[in-house]
Task: inverse folding
């Protein structure tokens, strides 16, 4: 085996996805990243490999194949049962140095954002945080720019042979987008925002064909400098914003009567079959818990219908919801920026409009 | 015992943000503030100082005007500050930034009982990478997303937030923690603090000061030493505004429900 040298760009092959598990269960982000990784591996004509660490987790590995993984590297040890920075970073860095993947994707969860920078610093390579779009193929990237940027593409030059991973992410709270490359070092690493990449259809045949490999690794208790004393699950059921088909969000406009405002949102969400979200102002004021936050610093959603009640539409909020299929905004001010992205706008008092909307949607559904 | 706090001065992106025609940020039009998560790290350090008598040292990398922010933090109660500033450091990505700050922390010195605190992430980049990367460069254990810190002998007991709950993690000093806003409410500058802050030491670390540290080489710092490069930067297009419905009464709502039913999305 040749020595690991991070600048030998040609020596690196394959797309890897870190598949995070908590309590022995895969995270939804794993399936999104495997699906996205499949596309990149096809563009690079290489293998897609999941990396799964834990204790007795081999049983959940095959599922990753159903979303596109050719192979899953499974490392099992009681020392890997719960995530620790030191254990996971050591095992994964050793694997990277041995097997030399070209691209390495990690979900930008609280754990992925702890692990990713540690790995990149140790491997001396680049890491792009919280990506929302990934491309290898230059034609596809140009297509993406033509839809998602205000750049004049006739003035841009592209090298059509470019094989670098082009990693696009929002910056400055979504005011700017930047595409980042890591041309001189491998692997090229990226953390990816949960909820952004689309999960592929599960294919049982592919799952059956997925290869499970259990590489040797070395890990000793003294490698781990932190001790996990306990893991506590939130007592309250957390709202699943990213997976919801209907999201009804409230903003500062409910301040007149917070309780009633949230009740109305819950009622409308129930009629639609969805969940309640909130803008940063609502979370900061403590009116809804943090798991409800939609936006750049909260969650990215793309439901069938997104209803914004009393949300002015700061750019950092829009960054989290503007890809919804249909956006309905109710706001007292007809100049509220939310109307710039809304498919349907109603200028009015949410406390008066929402009950009418609930009745109208109930009636429209009953008439079907 | 020392507590070293890494802070960054950032443009305030919570208000109106101006973008230049070439797609770069118009920084001149925006107020410069202490990064919010870093303020929680400062508060945590000052609280620990009250409990233990530790010295609080603030480190920031940035252009010379960041000195004003450092004086503010000295006025909150920190003991001394270091501004890491130099042309050679400009254009650094998170990797290169962490090399430089780690070298600055090495120069200050990390002793057995010391703690390094960072904010979780800065609001201009939102990467959350520099803290863990500094920890790696210094060979220290890290705990990120910290919402509670308790000191017990030579260890810290930290509440580390997850999306679906939290972990309680025990870590021995020296170590690095990244702090989130749930940790505390930052204090204001005090009047005596403001009087004192100009007599407290504020040192500038430039390239010459740090150049002998093994982490500092011209090909590991600055724009040239950054593994990542910006390929393109652009502003997203505004999604075209849709239809403003007339009125806000029962009829309006019925019309909207009719449209949604017609599109088969309800």
Result:
């Amino acid at each position: 085996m040749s020595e690991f040298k991070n600048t030998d760009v040609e020596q690196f092959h394959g797309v890897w996805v870190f598949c995070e598990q908590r309590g022995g269960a895969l995270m939804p982000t794993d399936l999104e990243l495997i699906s996205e990784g499949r596309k990149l591996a096809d563009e690079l004509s290489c293998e897609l490999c999941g990396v799964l660490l834990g204790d007795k987790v081999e049983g959940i590995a095959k599922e990753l194949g159903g979303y596109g993984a050719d192979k899953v590297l499974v490392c099992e040890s009681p020392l890997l049962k719960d995530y620790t920075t030191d254990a996971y970073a050591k095992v994964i860095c050793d694997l990277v140095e041995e097997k030399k993947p070209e691209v390495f994707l990690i979900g930008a969860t609280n754990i992925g954002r702890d692990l990713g920078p540690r790995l990149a610093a140790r491997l001396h390579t680049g890491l792009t945080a919280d990506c929302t779009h990934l491309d290898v193929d230059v034609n596809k990237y140009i297509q993406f720019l033509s839809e998602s940027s205000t750049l004049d593409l006739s003035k841009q030059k592209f090298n059509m042979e470019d094989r670098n991973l082009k990693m696009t992410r929002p910056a400055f709270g979504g005011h700017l987008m930047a595409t980042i490359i890591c041309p001189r070092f491998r692997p090229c690493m990226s953390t990816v925002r949960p909820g952004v990449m689309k999960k592929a259809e599960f294919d049982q045949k592919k799952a059956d064909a997925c290869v499970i490999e259990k590489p040797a690794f070395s890990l000793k208790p003294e490698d781990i400098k932190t001790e996990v004393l306990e893991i506590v699950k939130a007592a309250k059921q957390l709202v699943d914003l990213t997976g919801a088909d209907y999201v009804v969000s409230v903003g500062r406009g409910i301040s007149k009567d917070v309780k009633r405002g949230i009740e109305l949102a819950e009622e409308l969400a129930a009629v639609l079959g969805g969940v309640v979200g909130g803008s940063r102002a609502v979370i900061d004021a403590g009116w809804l818990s943090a798991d409800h936050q939609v936006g750049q610093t909260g969650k990215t959603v793309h439901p069938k219908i997104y209803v914004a009640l009393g949300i002015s539409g700061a750019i950092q909020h829009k960054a989290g919801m503007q890809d919804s299929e249909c956006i309905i905004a109710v706001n007292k001010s007809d100049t509220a920026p939310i109307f710039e992205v809304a498919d349907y706008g109603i200028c009015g008092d949410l406390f008066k409009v929402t009950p009418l909307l609930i009745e109208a949607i109930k009636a429209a559904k009953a008439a079907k | 015992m020392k507590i070293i706090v890494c802070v960054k001065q950032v443009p305030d992106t919570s208000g109106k943000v101006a973008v230049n025609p070439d797609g770069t940020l118009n920084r001149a039009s925006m107020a410069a503030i202490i990064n919010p998560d870093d303020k929680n790290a400062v508060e945590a350090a000052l609280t620990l100082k009250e409990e233990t008598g530790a010295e609080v040292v603030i480190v920031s990398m940035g252009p010379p005007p960041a000195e004003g922010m450092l004086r503010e933090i000295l006025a909150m109660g920190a003991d001394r500050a270091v501004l890491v500033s130099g042309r050679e450091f400009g254009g650094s990505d998170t990797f290169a930034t962490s090399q430089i700050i780690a070298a600055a922390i090495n120069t200050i010195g990390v002793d057995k009982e010391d703690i390094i605190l960072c904010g979780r992430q800065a609001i201009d980049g939102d990467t959350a990478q520099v803290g863990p990367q500094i920890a790696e460069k210094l060979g220290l254990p890290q705990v990120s997303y910290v919402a509670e810190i308790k000191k017990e002998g030579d260890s810290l007991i930290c509440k580390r937030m997850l999306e679906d709950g939290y972990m309680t993690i025990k870590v021995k000093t020296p170590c690095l923690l990244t702090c989130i806003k749930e940790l505390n409410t930052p204090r204001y500058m005090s009047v005596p603090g403001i009087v004192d802050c100009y007599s407290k030491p504020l040192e500038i670390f430039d390239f010459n000061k740090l150049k002998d540290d093994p982490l500092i080489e011209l090909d590991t710092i600055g724009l040239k030493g950054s593994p990542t490069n910006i390929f393109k930067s652009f502003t997203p297009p505004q999604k075209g505004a849709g239809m403003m419905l007339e009125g806000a009464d029962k009829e309006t709502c019925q019309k909207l429900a009719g449209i949604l039913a017609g599109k088969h999305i309800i």
